């Protein structure tokens, strides 16, 4: 994954933010909307694109666009930096291949110990009973 190349493929759009802020909200377009087209990307190979399609299926639009918003700050530049960082983290985490779990065999000593413990417990419980007087 080439970060520089991916950043050049991103498209940003500034929109008026909602919420508190008084006149600033009505006048300034500080909210940033980041759009990334997964299918048209040249920075990712086919295997990476397939993995991202599976991992980010719930976040992609029907034409495979990933859309992220940020209106945390009153500054458009800060919002752009935040949404770009969030996007890169999302892509990086989605591309990680999970480690394959190696199945290990239970050691014979552990099995033996468990069976001995079961026998001891059975003996303790058997000793609690009243003795037969026959």
TrEMBL record:
Any Pfam family matching the protein: RF-1
Biological-process GO terms, alphabetical: rescue of stalled ribosome
An example molecular function term from Gene Ontology annotations: ribosome binding
Positions of the Prokaryotic-type class I peptide chain release factors domain: 16-32
Family: Belongs to the prokaryotic/mitochondrial release factor family.
Protein name in UniProt: Peptide chain release factor 1
